[in-house]
């Protein structure tokens, strides 16, 4: 089966998933509301007591990190949707059709990425309303948005793979619990330089930290770091991390879809 046919099939499945959100918009809306709540809590309740290495306004530091964290939170929704389709037999009906093994996962990823773009626009508009500003050029800001969606795309494939492999309630719950410490063990809320050395090392090499640091650099916001890989090569690391994740989990997802058992 050629690539054109696979893309056409993925497009049809993507439209199917988007129609579900059109009929039931509460899940993405609650996700956006939750992220805005975190911004208000950390920006206004805790922000006044946090000083950044190198100086700068904490809210301006926080917002790019929240954009990156919102991209990561999509992993849970993707995994849950894929797992539910598998349990209900929807995925098996797709497998009975003469379609590419990557079409169904790719269609799901495309729908989630479209939803993520809307979510990102809403969060940025909310950030502008509470005083966040992007000081970089238009091209730099567009690159920052591209890096955020690039991270989301790679993490979606991780969610798709886990949804195909871990279909039980326990597996879904375990991933939902693990997303939180991974998201918080990053530079989203606090600079890695303010953490214990071993913890700061882990935070610096978190893919969410790389994207957050790159977006701060491109948006012209406070970096929160004065040395290390995030200070010197944030954009490069933010490009490479999602590439590695996608290279690993795209073929694994296609393989898991082919081998899915009833």
Plain-language structure description:
- With 262 residues, the chain is mainly α.
- It has one domain (3-258).
- 76% of the residues lie in helices and 0% in strands.
- It is built from 11 helices and no strands.
- Helix 3 (58-88) packs antiparallel against helix 5 and helix 6 runs antiparallel to helix 9 (207-219).
- The two termini are 24 Å apart.
- The model has no long low-confidence stretch (mean pLDDT 82).
- One of its GO terms (molecular function) is ABC-type transporter activity.
- It is a multi-pass membrane protein.
- This is Transport permease protein.
Briefly summarize what is shown.
Keywords: Antibiotic resistance, Cell membrane, Membrane, Transmembrane, Transmembrane helix, Transport. The protein has one domain.
Mean pLDDT value = 82
The proportion of residues in beta strands is under 5%
Secondary-structure content class: mainly alpha
Q: What is the count of helical runs?
A: 11
Helix/strand order: HHHHHHHHHHH
Unreliable runs, pLDDT <50, ≥5 residues? none
Approximate helicity band: over 70%
The domain tally reads: 1
**Euclidean distance between termini CA atoms:** 24 Å
How many E strands?
Answer: 0
How would the global form be characterised? Answer: elongated
């Amino acid at each position: 089966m050629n690539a054109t046919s696979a893309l056409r099939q993925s497009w049809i499945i993507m439209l199917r998933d988007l129609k579900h959100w059109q009929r039931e918009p509460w899940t993405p809306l609650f996700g956006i509301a939750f992220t805005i709540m975190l911004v208000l809590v950390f920006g206004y309740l805790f922000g006044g007591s946090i000083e950044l290495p190198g100086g700068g306004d904490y809210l301006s530091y926080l917002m790019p990190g929240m954009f990156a964290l919102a991209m990561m939170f999509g992993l849970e929704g993707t995994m849950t949707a894929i797992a539910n389709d598998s349990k209900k037999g929807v995925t098996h009906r797709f497998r009975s059709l003469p379609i590419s093994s990557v079409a169904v996962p790719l269609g799901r990823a495309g729908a989630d990425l479209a939803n993520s773009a809307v979510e990102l626009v809403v969060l940025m508009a909310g950030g502008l309303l509470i005083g966040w500003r992007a000081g970089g050029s238009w091209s730099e800001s567009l690159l920052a948005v591209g890096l955020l969606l690039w991270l989301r795309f790679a993490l979606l494939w991780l969610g798709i793979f886990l949804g195909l492999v871990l279909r039980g309630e326990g597996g879904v719950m375990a991933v939902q619990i693990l997303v939180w410490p991974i998201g918080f063990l990053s530079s989203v809320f606090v600079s890695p330089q303010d953490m214990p050395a071993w913890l700061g090392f882990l935070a610096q090499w978190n893919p969410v930290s790389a994207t957050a640091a790159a977006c701060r650099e491109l948006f012209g916001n406070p970096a929160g770091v004065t040395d290390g890989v995030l200070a010197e090569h944030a954009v490069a690391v933010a490009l490479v991390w999602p590439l590695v994740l996608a290279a690993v989990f795209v073929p694994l997802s296609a393989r898991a879809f082919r081998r899915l058992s009833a």
